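Job type: complex structure
Entries:
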Amino acid sequence: MPTNTLGKYSFEVDSEGFFTVSSEWSEDLAREMATLVEIELTDEHLAALNFMRKDAAETGATPTLRRMQSVGGFKIKELYQLFPGKTLKMMAWLSGLRKPVSCV
Amino acid sequence: MAKLLILGGGTAGTMAANLMRAKLDSSWEITVVDADNAHHYQPGYLFVPFWMKPSRVVRKRTKFFNDGVTFVEDAVTRVEPEANTVHLASGRTLTYDYLIVASGTRPVPSMVEGMAEELERGEKVFQFYTLDGAAELHDALEKFEGGKLLVHISEMPIKCPVAPLEFTFLAEDYYRKRGIRHKVDITFVTPLDGAFTKPVATRELGNMLEDRSIRLTTDFQVESVGDGVLASYDGRELDFDLLVTIPPNMGQQFIIDSRMGDASGFVETDKHTLRSVRWENVFVLGDAGNLPTSKAGAVAHFSAEILVENLCAAINGKEPEASFDGHANCFVESGRGQAMLLDFNYETQPLTGTFPLPFVGPMRLLKPSRINHMGKLAFEQIYWNMLLPGRPIPLPSAMMTAGKKFPKED
């Protein structure tokens, strides 16, 4: 597995850049990573990312957008505004989780 | 009298009932509950829009239960797993010692703004994940003389995740044969980042879309369906003259009402033992669970013998030790009288190669061939006559890696 370094941080990632060791994540690191995709992380961003981490720790899987809405109370539309583009993938990456798997 | 209760009389529930009947002695009563007595051969839904008669897809559920299985035709309204009790729409209640949830999944168009209304209107928006929908789509395809056709997946997971691609290939072939393919602009629209979820299959299937001049729109998370417009959360809008959509798939309403499942109504299931992670006397077979593999009849079939072994172990006071590997296997219709074959499990993605025997085949994995297509059509008879009654089929339940070509490590 490759190791990425960003500023003072280094962390194990898979071939697509997603964290393989979730505990190597921190809010500060997420802020650094967010600058790479031109997002300045606010408390709103962090609330979503922290919910994802908490939920993933409980269920063992990166939550879906539907789950973010129904369990976390986040509006999908607003998540798209907070993390424009490939929203869920970006959120999974920024929260130090695995790429969201859609079952085959 | 000890009681085994099975919720759902489809592929999974019928197999479970018949296989367990052969294992349990007459001190056990086996009961299957379903809302109606119509067993649908769901793989047929794919062909109904093109050529299969809807009536060919449906038979009576009761014809496929072996002796000693009782069928109750009633809708489940609520389960109380703590009280081992199931409430039915008629007001009747049933109790159980062991429960198998085999209630499958269903398309829920109301989860997407405008989708249910547009489907109801029946002018530009259709689906083939219900038999009625597939029959209506048949007429719509026939009337369609050209324009923009979108084939669209709302979100994953869906049952039979390759069916939308198969439909796309068959539609392309259908308009080619009608001689108006040049007037039909086909786009495959998916929330995934490619034609499929796993790398090798995505590459092969993606190439095939390109070869057939079918456009691909990825990462499309649908927000709403309007009159001729499909909109995504990131602000993209796709125009269409005909939309064939796969609505979000969810577990049954009674699972949601009973708080037995996750956010989408799928029962949280141990992916190896097939036992509920919350209740020791509840097992789950088929699409109703949340296993990280395909929602498909093949998975219900390959996992059925694991379920039987583990349920018998639990009944005898032992730990369930048989382990399901996530084996799934599907014929993918690719048009032109051909089909491809996918074979995979939790660990191994669909690969190219031959099946079931290394080098010999006769089936080729992930490449279109005539024999794969014949295999798909022949499966209809195998399904009714061998699979549902619980007769052995000469295919191993666990996936084999022999015959598969693994990609080189980077």
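Summary: Chain A has a mean pLDDT of 89. Chain A touches chain B at residues 15, 59, 61, 64-67, 70-71, 76-77, 80, 84-89, 101-104 (CB under 8 Å).
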